[in-house]
């Protein structure tokens, strides 16, 4: 048996979470360092997985397979393709930054709390590591049931992270803040549970179909794909569509796609900035990733059937999210709506069913993670200085804190996909990929380019430029810890914008295989086709 | 003797027990009526065991007895605690579990 | 030699990186680092130029591939450079004028505490602009295209503490983004049509493509050009862009960046040649803009905004020339280069005047400055003579050729375009004479500024005057040198193709008419602003003047047509999202909550009532089971 690298990558942060939670109340600092070290070690493991992954090799690599609940055909099956390995890399990469950025977010307010067992800090970092573990194993699982369990289970730590830890200061006082936070956390949970419930029905349905046709029910992705390729499994059109919709609904909630998006602005607005990054840059990616891995591969015909409707919803997400971002007065909610617009692009790319579209969508997931992390974390640093999330509370920050303003601008420019920064590559690929199959859709999607410039630059202008507001006067610039969080992210944005090859090399073969699953090939250029 | 008669007896005991649970307010009495219902069920199980000629019913009767014993332990403890705190064994007085 | 091309871009990029991340310790040397790197980029360009001269016309182009940038499926984009005569012309102009303006800025920005950052942005601009003209494919060009947009945004908004500057910067970027959408759609069309977006293969395969597609690509490229080159209908940002420091206006918003649209159209000449409809659109845009800008330029009292109107108008000439096809490409580029000299010189002159006048920009508060600023006066005057097309100076050669080419288009179209160009020449003479008279002649009309400082006009330091003198030399001699033995035509012909223009009435007649119109313009301006004293507060004037002062109502139009509906739309959508999309969900939640509130009353806390319901439930279940068995 080979070395269980994937289990270890997911297991390490899980063990780290337990260890962090067990740190005694008085040793808060140790808990932070422990969490950081564990997340960095996970990053090393993820990097090893990335390097050991051979783009030219088998579709799923580093596989592990063990019987688990044999009676129901549930197996503990792990394996990664190029898409998964890239996203595991993203997750493992972002979590250390999330931990470093949230270093003081969970410090108890009173140093001498009478309750000796009170230890929110330990809980905060343990929950973050737990989310990381569950996200990573979701990317690795090739057994539908195994995936489902962790897809749902990650809601629990996320719920506590959103509901339990918020920004220190709030315009409307501590009590109102707690009320809003709990509203946001419950909304997050209910939306995602509703999605998960429908998916559970579809998961059971899938088992029923396989049990009916193959004799022995199975959740194994590879077994199902082989059975279909061999002609043993032939779902009826109705069954396939129903199952597809069940899966897609859950992923669309998580992603989130219009009109299932309204939980995101609340959750990202009320959570602390690092947790908001965890939501949008890490957890939500499981939704779009699962569309690629499960929806398209398990239900190719139904995916094609649903494509027109999904493209329309994605387009609405792009334009609607961007317009709403323009209209926001709250910095974090603005970034949340911008993310909705970006998720529209990702879903558009996936369902354009071209190699540029899907390759671009995968890159988009990675790049959006990095760029949103950069923008959101700097926004969080800004908010922590002034204690207000409202755009109108700021003005002229550039004058007093030029480095903060500069990094905020670069994060913003990445969000609006400036060429030279990583998101441009992915956004352009998605647009080209969409355009080559659906020209009208591609053209409408380009309006997102203009609107992105609008919401980013309006945000920057209102907060950073102009005369220095009295409340902003004397605001300190970025500290060393904060700069250490932002600088690598910015460097990465530039590197991946100029040289995305390491990523595309890994992703391309996986995308080609997904395309061949749905029996689609790229449209030929008009000139070649006419010859 | 026709074993069906035991079933009639079991039903009768069960009804008495149920009526007691519903009508009486004293928690101890209610508790005894619950025991009566459990034992009525036991009687039915044993009878069925005899009628079908296998041991399943008798085994289940043992289970029931174990559960009943556990229940008595927990239940009496609760009743005693309630009685200590509010000086009453009436089940209607302990209605705080509603929202 | 070809490995040097990358260094053209890398040197200023390096400067930008060092200056922007270097921190305060570079404050004292930063401007020198920036200037030296810009200068060394010019040296590299010069080396490449002489190397290129050593080869014959057809194989002068150099090609160099650095690495594969994006490769997904058949979509392949390289970071690769192409240096042909067209790129070379631009590279020399950009690095040459760029270096001069770096030198000028050392003096101009001397008292600004953020001078290091200013030079960082200038270097960033040079790198992006060079990337734009050196790229060998449209996607890489797009990177430079947005890169110059970013540099322009940063530099317009350099004095960020002024809300007007921040707004102008944002406006410039967003209007440009509208144009960028055009460029990205054009690239997508090329990819779906030709399977590539590299210059060579695309332009070589134009014959096989349908005219409809080519028209589409052409119109989208035109949209991009309109955004970057401030052509109608995306012109509104250029006037506001004058909020930036004056060296920026000279380099970016006069000499180089705003001419990128002309480069794009000329570079894509093969596409436009095969798409006559798109060409008509190009010349229409050019002709409309050249008049639009000229009219705006007549009414502005702000010296920089008057010059901005002029820039818009002159680029209108270039765009029109580029839309005329092979008879115009060469002259579009030639006018672009000569304009780069004299307009940069004029802006630097304006900056020198402002430098001496406490940053006053209102020409009605100038007057009689020729005595106080002799060098500025002479260099500005030479630039003035060049732009109005005074015989023998550079503007004369390039503009005259464009007017000839416009008439040579033939038919009604030729007369309309030629007429517009001729009229534009007259208006140019008028507004430039107006600027000249109001600034350097007449009585002095200075007033103390808001803090009570009386201006003490003085000549600017050497670091500022030397670049002005060099540019003045260019303004005087460039046109003559280019036209000597048709040197410029021969230089560019292998790249852009060239046809001799034959205006129906003969070239001499066109030149004569141009002279007459120019003299009329000068005379009219002298009659209005030279003979009579200039009032220091603007009179009410006619409706046309008032409209022109408001940039012919462009902002009002945009406000009513785009901004207001946009605001209402976003506000409406925020409401809909909250009350509608979210409301449905919250409504469902509230309904469930209400229902459970009712049902909660069943839970009365009495153990006996729970027992009854359990008993009743069991009874129902037993009854149902018995019934079902009865049925089955």
Automatic annotation (TrEMBL), chain A:
Keywords: Membrane, Transmembrane, Transmembrane helix
Primary localisation category: membrane
GO biological process, one term: ATP synthesis coupled electron transport
Segments traversing the membrane: 31-51, 83-104, 124-151, 188-209, 242-263, 275-299, 305-327, 334-353, 365-383, 403-426, 438-460, 480-499
Keyword Transmembrane appears in the UniProt entry: yes
GO CC terms in record: endomembrane system; membrane
PANTHER family the UniProt entry points to: NADH-UBIQUINONE OXIDOREDUCTASE CHAIN 4 (PTHR43507)
Protein family: Belongs to the complex I subunit 4 family.
Protein name per its UniProtKB record: NADH dehydrogenase subunit M
From TrEMBL, chain B:
Keyword Transmembrane: yes
Localization annotation: Cell membrane; Membrane
InterPro entries hit by this protein: NADH_UbQ_OxRdtase_chain4L/K (IPR001133), NUOK/Mnh_C1-like (IPR039428)
Residues passing through the membrane, by range: 6-23, 28-48, 60-83
EC number per UniProt: 7.1.1.-
Any one annotated GO CC term: plasma membrane
Subunit structure: NDH-1 is composed of 14 different subunits. Subunits NuoA, H, J, K, L, M, N constitute the membrane sector of the complex.
Catalytic function, reaction form: a quinone + NADH + 5 H(+)(in) = a quinol + NAD(+) + 4 H(+)(out)
Name this polypeptide is given: NADH-quinone oxidoreductase subunit K
Physiological role: NDH-1 shuttles electrons from NADH, via FMN and iron-sulfur (Fe-S) centers, to quinones in the respiratory chain. The immediate electron acceptor for the enzyme in this species is believed to be a menaquinone. Couples the redox reaction to proton translocation (for every two electrons transferred, four hydrogen ions are translocated across the cytoplasmic membrane), and thus conserves the redox energy in a proton gradient.
Gene expressing this chain: nuoK
Pfam families documented for this protein: Oxidored_q2
A GO molecular function held by the record: quinone binding
GO biological process per UniProt: ATP synthesis coupled electron transport
Membrane among keywords: yes
Organism lineage: Bacteria, Bacillati, Actinomycetota, Actinomycetes, Kitasatosporales
Membrane topology qualifier: Multi-pass membrane protein
Keywords: Cell membrane, Membrane, NAD, Quinone, Translocase, Transmembrane, Transmembrane helix, Transport
Family note: Belongs to the complex I subunit 4L family.
From TrEMBL, chain C:
Protein name from the UniProt record: NADH-quinone oxidoreductase subunit L
Lineage start: Bacteria, Bacillati, Actinomycetota, Actinomycetes, Kitasatosporales
Gene3D superfamilies for this protein: 1.20.5.2700
GO cellular component: endomembrane system; membrane
Residues of the NADH-Ubiquinone oxidoreductase (complex I) chain 5 N-terminal domain: 69-119
Segments traversing the membrane: 30-50, 87-106, 118-135, 181-203, 209-227, 248-266, 278-299, 372-394, 414-437, 466-485, 505-529, 607-628
PANTHER family linked: NADH-UBIQUINONE OXIDOREDUCTASE CHAIN 5
Any one Gene Ontology BP term: electron transport coupled proton transport
Membrane-topology descriptor: Multi-pass membrane protein
Gene Ontology MF terms: NADH dehydrogenase (ubiquinone) activity; NADH dehydrogenase activity
Organism: Actinacidiphila glaucinigra
Keyword Transmembrane: yes
Subcellular location: Endomembrane system; Membrane
Domain NADH:quinone oxidoreductase/Mrp antiporter transmembrane as annotated: residue spans: 135-417
Keywords from the UniProt entry: Membrane, Transmembrane, Transmembrane helix
């Amino acid at each position: 048996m080979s070395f269980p690298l994937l289990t270890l990558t997911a297991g390490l942060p899980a063990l780290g979470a337990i260890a962090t939670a067990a740190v005694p109340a008085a040793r808060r600092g140790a808990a932070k360092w422990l969490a950081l070290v564990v997340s960095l070690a996970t990053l090393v493991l993820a990097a090893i997985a990335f390097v050991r992954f051979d783009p030219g090799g088998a579709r799923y690599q580093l596989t592990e397979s063990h019987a688990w609940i044999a009676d129901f055909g549930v197996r503990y099956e792990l394996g990664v393709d190029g898409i998964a390995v890239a996203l595991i890399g993203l997750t493992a990469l972002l979590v250390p930054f999330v931990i470093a950025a949230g270093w003081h977010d969970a410090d108890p307010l009173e140093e001498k709390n009478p309750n000796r067992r009170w230890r929110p800090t330990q809980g905060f970092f343990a929950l973050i590591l737990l989310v990381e573990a569950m996200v990573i194993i979701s990317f690795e699982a090739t057994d539908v049931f195994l995936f489902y369990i962790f897809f749902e289970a990650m809601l629990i730590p996320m719920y506590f992270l959103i509901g339990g830890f918020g920004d220190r200061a709030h315009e409307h006082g501590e009590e109102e803040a707690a009320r809003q936070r709990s509203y946001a956390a419950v909304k997050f949970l209910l939306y995602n549970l509703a999605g998960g419930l429908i998916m559970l029905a579809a998961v059971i349905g899938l088992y029923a179909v396989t049990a009916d046709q193959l004799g022995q029910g199975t959740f194994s992705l590879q077994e199902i794909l082989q059975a279909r390729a061999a002609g043993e499994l032939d779902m009826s059109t109705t069954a396939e569509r129903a199952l597809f919709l069940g899966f897609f609904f859950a992923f669309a909630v998580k992603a989130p796609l219009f009109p299932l998006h309204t939980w995101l602005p609340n959750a990202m607005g009320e959570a602390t900035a690092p947790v908001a990054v965890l939501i949008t840059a890490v957890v939500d990616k499981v939704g779009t990733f699962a569309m690629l891995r499960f929806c398209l591969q398990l239900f190719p015909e139904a995916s094609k059937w649903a494509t027109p409707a999904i493209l329309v919803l994605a387009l609405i997400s792009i334009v609607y999210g961007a317009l709403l971002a323009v209209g926001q007065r709250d910095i974090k909610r603005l970034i949340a709506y911008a993310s909705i617009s970006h998720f529209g692009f990702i879903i558009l790319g996936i369902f354009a069913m071209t190699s540029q579209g899907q390759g671009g969508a995968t890159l988009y997931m990675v790049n959006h993670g990095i760029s949103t992390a950069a923008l959101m974390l700097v926004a969080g640093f800004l908010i922590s200085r002034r204690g207000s999330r409202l755009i109108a509370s700021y003005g002229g920050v550039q004058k007093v804190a030029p480095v903060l303003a500069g990094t905020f601008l670069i994060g913003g420019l990445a969000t609006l996909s400036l060429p030279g920064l990583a998101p441009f590559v992915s956004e352009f690929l998605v647009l080209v990929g969409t355009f080559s199959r659906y020209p009208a859709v591609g053209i409408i999607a380009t309006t997102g380019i203009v609107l992105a410039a609008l919401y980013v630059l309006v945000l920057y202008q209102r907060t950073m430029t102009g005369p220095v507001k009295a409340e902003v006067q004397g605001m300190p610039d970025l500290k060393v810890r904060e700069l250490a969080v932002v600088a690598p992210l910015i460097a990465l944005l530039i590197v991946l914008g100029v040289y995305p090859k390491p990523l595309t090399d890994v992703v391309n073969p996986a995308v080609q295989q997904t395309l061949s699953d749905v029996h689609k090939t790229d449209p030929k250029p008009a000139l070649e086709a006419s010859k | 003797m026709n074993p069906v008669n035991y079933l009639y007896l079991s039903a009768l005991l069960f009804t008495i027990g149920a009526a007691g649970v519903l009508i009486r307010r004293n928690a101890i009495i209610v508790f005894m009526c619950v025991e009566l219902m459990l034992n009525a069920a036991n009687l039915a199980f044993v009878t069925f065991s005899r009628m079908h000629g296998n041991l399943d019913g008798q085994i289940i009767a043992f289970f029931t007895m174990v559960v009943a014993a556990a229940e008595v332990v927990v239940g009496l403890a609760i009743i005693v605690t309630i009685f200590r705190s509010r000086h009453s064994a009436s089940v209607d007085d302990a209605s705080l579990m509603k929202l | 030699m070809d490995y040097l091309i990358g260094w053209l871009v890398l040197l200023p990029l390096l400067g930008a990186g060092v200056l922007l991340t270097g921190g305060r310790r570079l404050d004292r040397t930063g401007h020198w680092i920036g200037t030296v790197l810009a200068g060394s980029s010019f040296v590299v360009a010069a080396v490449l130029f002489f190397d290129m001269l050593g080869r014959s016309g057809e194989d002068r182009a150099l090609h160099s591939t650095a690495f594969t940038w994006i490769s997904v499926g058949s979509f392949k984009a390289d970071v690769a450079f192409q240096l042909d005569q067209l790129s070379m012309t631009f590279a020399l102009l950009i690095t040459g004028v760029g270096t001069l303006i770096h030198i000028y800025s050392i003096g101009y920005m001397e008292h600004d505490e953020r001078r290091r950052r200013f030079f960082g942005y200038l270097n960033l601009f040079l790198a992006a602009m060079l990337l734009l003209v050196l790229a060998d494919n449209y996607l890489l060009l797009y990177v430079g295209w947005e890169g110059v947009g970013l540099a322009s945004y940063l530099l317009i908004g350099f004095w960020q503490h002024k809300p007007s500057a921040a707004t102008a910067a944002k406006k410039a970027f967003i209007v440009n983004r509208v144009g960028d959408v055009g460029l990205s759609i054009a690239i997508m069309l090329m990819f779906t049509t030709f399977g590539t977006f590299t210059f060579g293969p695309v332009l070589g395969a134009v014959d096989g493509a349908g005219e409809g597609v080519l028209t589409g690509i052409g119109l989208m490229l035109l949209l991009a050009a309109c955004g970057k080159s401030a052509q109608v209908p995306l012109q509104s940002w250029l006037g506001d862009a004058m909020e930036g420091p004056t060296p920026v206006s000279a380099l970016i918003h006069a000499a180089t960046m705003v001419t990128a649209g002309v480069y794009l159209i000329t570079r894509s000449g093969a596409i436009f040649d095969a798409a006559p409809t798109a060409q008509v659109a190009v010349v229409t845009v050019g002709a409309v803009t050249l008049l639009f800008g000229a009219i705006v330029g007549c009414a502005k009292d702000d010296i920089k905004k008057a010059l901005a109107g002029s820039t818009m108008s002159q680029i209108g000439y270039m765009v029109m020339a580029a839309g005329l096809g092979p008879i115009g490409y060469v002259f579009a580029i030639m006018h672009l280069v000569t304009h780069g000299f004299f307009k940069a010189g004029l802006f630097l002159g304006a900056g020198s005047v402002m430098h001496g006048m406490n940053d006053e920009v209102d020409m009605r508060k100038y007057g009689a400055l020729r005595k106080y600023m002799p060098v500025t006066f002479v260099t500005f005057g030479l630039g003035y003579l060049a732009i109005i097309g005074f015989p023998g100076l550079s503007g004369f050669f390039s503009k005259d050729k464009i007017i000839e080419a416009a008439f040579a288009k033939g038919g009604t179209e030729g007369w309309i375009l030629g007429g517009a160009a001729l009229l534009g020449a007259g208006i140019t003479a008028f507004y430039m004479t107006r600027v000249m008279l109001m600034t350097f002649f007449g009585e002095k009309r200075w007033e103390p500024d808001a803090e009570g400082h009386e201006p003490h006009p003085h000549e600017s330091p050497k670091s500022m005057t030397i670049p002005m003198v060099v540019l003045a030399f260019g303004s005087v001699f460039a046109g003559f040198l280019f036209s000597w033995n048709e040197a410029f035509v021969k230089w560019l012909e292998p790249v852009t193709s060239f046809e001799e223009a034959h205006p129906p009435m003969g070239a001499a007649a066109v030149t004569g008419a141009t002279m007459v119109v120019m003299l009329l313009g000068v005379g009219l301006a002298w009659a209005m602003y030279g003979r009579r004293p200039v009032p220091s507060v603007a009179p009410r004037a006619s409706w046309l003047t008032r409209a022109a002062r408001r940039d012919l109502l462009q902002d009002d139009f945009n406000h009513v047509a785009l901004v207001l509906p946009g605001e209402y739309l976003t506000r409406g959508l925020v409401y809909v999202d909250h009350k509608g999309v979210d409301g449905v969900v919250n409504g469902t939640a509230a309904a469930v909550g209400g229902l459970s509130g009712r049902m909660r009353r069943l839970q009365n806390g009495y153990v006996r009532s729970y027992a009854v319901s359990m008993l009743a439930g069991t009874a129902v279940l037993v009854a149902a089971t018995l019934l079902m068995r009865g049925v089955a």
